[in-house]
């Protein structure tokens, strides 16, 4: 059974929705500090530590620790 078949069918639409809903924040006043060895993009707030919750109702077939 291919558990990824449904996701392949909607991948293009999912990427389009993600692009349209992406919010970029610019630190113009330098009031947000960043560590030098950290990636420039990151999850903020509650979602930074609960990977499984981000997957929502699809968590049964998902892998929370996937990069």
**Helices and strands: which structural class?**
mainly alpha
Strand content: under 5%
Helical fraction: 25-40%
**What is the tally of beta strands?**
0
Number of domains: 1
Shape: elongated
Write up this protein.
With 67 residues, the chain is mostly helical. It has one domain (6-55). 30% of the residues lie in helices and 0% in strands. The protein has helices spanning 5-9, 11-21, 51-54. It is elongated, with a radius of gyration of 16 Å. The protein starts with a helix and ends in a 13-residue tail after the last helix. The model has no long low-confidence stretch (mean pLDDT 67).
Helices and strands, with pairings:
Layout: H1 5-9, H2 11-21, H3 51-54
Protein name: Periplasmic beta-glucosidase
Keywords: Glycosidase, Hydrolase
EC number: 3.2.1.21
Keywords:
Periplasmic beta-glucosidase; 3 helices; EC 3.2.1.21; mainly alpha; glycosidase; beta-glucosidase activity
Summarize the structure.
Keywords: Glycosidase, Hydrolase. With 67 residues, the chain is mainly α. The chain has 3 helices and no strands.
């Amino acid at each position: 059974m291919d558990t990824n078949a449904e996701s392949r069918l909607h991948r293009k639409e999912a990427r389009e929705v993600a692009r349209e809903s992406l919010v970029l924040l610019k630190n113009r006043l330098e009031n947000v500090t960043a560590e030098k060895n950290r990636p420039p993009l990151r999850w903020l707030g509650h979602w930074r530590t609960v990977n499984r919750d981000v997957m929502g109702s699809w968590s049964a077939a998902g892998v929370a620790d996937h990069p």
